[in-house]
UniProtKB/TrEMBL annotation:
Molecular functions per Gene Ontology: nucleic acid binding; RNA-DNA hybrid ribonuclease activity
NCBIfam families per record: PRK07708.1
InterPro entries linked: RNaseH-like_sf, RNaseH_domain, RNaseH_sf
Name of protein: Ribonuclease HI
Protein origin, superkingdom: Bacteria
SUPFAM superfamilies, per the entry: Ribonuclease H-like
Pfam families, sorted: RVT_3
Amino acid sequence: MNVVIQWKYVSLKKQEIVLTSDWLPAEKALMIAEDFEKTGRVKELLFIDEQKTSWTKKELTKLLKELETEPHDIVAYFDGGFDKQTQKAGVGTVIYYKQNHQRYRLRANRMLDEIESNNEAEFAAFWFTVQKLEELGVHHLPVTFRGDSQVVLNQLSGEWPCFEDNFNAWLDRIEAKLAELGINAIFELISRKQNSEADKLATQALEKILITSTLELNEKG
């Protein structure tokens, strides 16, 4: 979770001045805020998150303690594949997250019918990823979504218009669920090579190799 510190303080000339920091990890922002307080010139300290919600120091400290037990610091990869011969799609997702000071990786895939193209398979993969996030209990947090589909990411971000009715149906469904969960989506286009984990899962789904697993990673912190 990243925040901006808004520090309202009184100068030596008794003038009230408001300073705003760059984006910082919330834990680091709280440490810096303690240094601010040592100056004896703090009139008000607020922390503003990526959803533009303001928190006091006490509120943010409490929130971070609550977040420790819930999934957070989430990066989700997605990919979809379509087999014209069988008219089936495979979707895959890899979700990295932190919980109780430990890093985890969730991998899952699924085979789907009634998909008409590779681009639609990519939309279905994004939707599958959002469903997995909901199952994890992710809510009211920023989530970074990474994929190699420029169509999906640019249309979800609003950079590209969407004229296809079936794509618009996927967009409406995804946007409604993200709003319901309070997820602040950050979209990042990556290369196919960087998306190899999700790509492999989508391919395995087409081969009827279905996977759902959660791995505890060694990286702590």
